[in-house]
Design goal:
By secondary structure, this protein is of the alpha+beta class. Helices cover about 40% and strands about 25% of the residues. The strands form 3 sheets. It has a 5-stranded antiparallel β-sheet with strand order 4-3-9-8-7, with helices on both faces. It is elongated and about 70 Å long. The N terminus is likely disordered.
Length: about 190
């Protein structure tokens, strides 16, 4: 439950940063007018992996995005296609290039899109599952997509370990020849 709360708070904080970056100086952020330089700093120094996409091509990315993909500099991502750092197919077996185009179109049509995506690191080729949040943004006359990517690997590993331990202790509880009872804080029997 605490893990979920922390994740929820991280999403809220990220949404504030993404909203600020998406507006690029046209609104107020935390009561202070920010200029383009300040928004660029928010983008570049964010701990969230952020990509600015023109279609399925990377127009800009921050250092966190480069690190998440096993690169040393964000500039190495510029001009790459999303397919260049994704698994060839996405779940459930859909072609990456086709699905990337569909998700981009969805973000433009609805304003946002959120989904899981199979990614691939450049340094070791390992594939991993990411959570992607897209937001359609208008910069001047150009319609682009701001993408935030979060690695789900650690969270899933934690969940898997919790399930394993729960099953292990449930088996001990069920197979014990000793009398064991679970009692809630209100002194009522749980099991």
């Amino acid at each position: 439950a605490l893990n979920g709360l922390v994740y929820g708070l991280e999403l809220i904080a990220t949404a504030l940063i993404v909203a600020a970056v998406a507006k690029l100086g046209f609104d107020r952020y935390q009561g202070q007018k920010l200029d383009t330089t300040q928004y660029r700093l928010l983008f570049e120094q964010s701990s969230d992996a952020l990509f600015l996409l023109d279609g399925e091509r990377v127009e800009n990315a921050n250092t966190s995005a480069a690190q998440l993909l096993g690169l040393s500099a964000a500039s190495q991502l510029i001009g790459l296609s999303v397919a260049d750092f994704s698994s060839e197919t996405q779940l459930p077996g859909v072609n990456t290039a086709r699905l990337a185009a569909e998700k981009t179109a969805e973000a433009h049509a609805k304003g946002t899109a959120s989904f899981e995506w199979r990614m691939r690191r450049f340094d070791n080729g390992n594939e991993w599952l990411g959570q992607v949040a897209l937001r359609s943004v208008l910069l001047g006359e150009r319609r682009l997509v701001l993408a935030r990517v979060t690695d789900l690997t650690q969270g899933r590993a934690y969940e898997d370990e919790q399930k394993r331990l729960t099953g292990k202790y449930q088996a001990i509880f069920d197979q014990s020849v000793d009398a064991i009872a679970l009692i809630g804080l209100d002194a009522r029997f749980i099991e």
